[in-house]
Specification:
alpha+beta, globular, single chain, 3 helices
Length: about 160
């Protein structure tokens, strides 16, 4: 079998950033998949499921309510390796195109107070496994990257 594209990225060189993972076509519609890498693979500890789950609920809620992009959002979800998240959007985008959106979204997560949307037994299959405090901490840590993002954090390393 052929190696899938995401397994061909050099995870030793990969640092936190915003990367275009792939572009697919559904008819004439381009679907852009973003790799929102929040931790340095194989160097930093991975994110625990509780904070990643809280980020997922807050990010998905924010994105599907964003006036500019809500009709372009297809999916937000965590990577199995727990070093980041994937965002799928309808449209042909570059990494730099969504940095302002990611800043707004992670500021929303960092500043969020109250009950996490969908954090109930009726709405979620594992609603008790969420850690808002750590989600806010990780959001700020990622914002430190986003606020000063450089070209090498927008294109996969060679």
């Amino acid at each position: 079998m052929e190696k899938i594209a995401s397994f061909t990225i050099d995870h030793i060189k990969l640092q936190p950033g915003v990367y275009v993972s792939r572009k697919d076509y559904l008819g004439e519609q381009v679907i852009t998949t973003f790799d929102l890498r929040m931790t340095s693979p194989n160097e930093e500890p991975v994110m625990n499921t509780a904070e990643l789950h809280a980020i997922e609920h807050l990010a998905a809620t924010y994105l599907r309510n964003d006036e500019e992009y809500k009709d372009k959002i297809i999916y937000w979800g965590p990577m199995g390796c727990r070093t980041g998240n994937y965002l799928l959007m309808a449209g042909d985008y570059q990494s730099k195109d969504i940095v302002p959106l990611m800043i707004r979204m992670f500021e929303f997560i960092r500043d969020f107070e109250g009950e996490i949307p969908g954090a109930s037994a009726k709405d979620c299959g594992n609603y008790l496994d969420m850690n808002l405090g750590m989600a806010k901490y990780l959001a700020q840590k990622y914002l430190d990257v986003l606020y000063h993002i450089t070209e090498d954090r927008l294109v996969y390393p060679q």
